[in-house]
Task: structure prediction
Amino acid sequence: MSYDLQTLRFHDLSIDLFYEIVTQRIAVFVVEQDCPYQEIDELDNHCQTRHLVIGSDSRLAAYARCLAPGTSYTDYASIGRVLVPQEERGKGLANRLMVSAIECCQTLWPQHDIKISAQRYLVEFYLSLGFEQVGESYLEDGIPHQAMVLQQIERPTN
Result:
């Protein structure tokens, strides 16, 4: 099956699509990972947040959100809420999604490196995309995580 990729602002999300995004985020992060926390936050509708959606009209196959510098981290752009529903895993969608999310951040905020809070079991995946580990691993919501940074290759000159 071929899926489209869209990069959308909050106000461009249909009610049905936002409902599907939230449903899948809760299914993966709250239920599957047994991690109760406030899933919807003020970053979802932030004016600079971009929602990356891979899917068809009726099916969400992968999702991530790109966050502007100063929203999640002071001096970094960020990518978060990265997910692929269980039934879509193993199809290369996570790689396609992350490459697109990196490109989104680099286009919107080229002067800022990208920082993520990666689950430890995914560190090798993020290393393959050019991220580097920063600091020691830590627990976030009871799950081992690792801070990682992707440095922008080229910085604009003024």
User: Anything to note?
Assistant: Helices lie at 15-32, 93-108, 123-128. The radius of gyration is 15 Å. Residues 15-32 form the longest helix (18 residues).
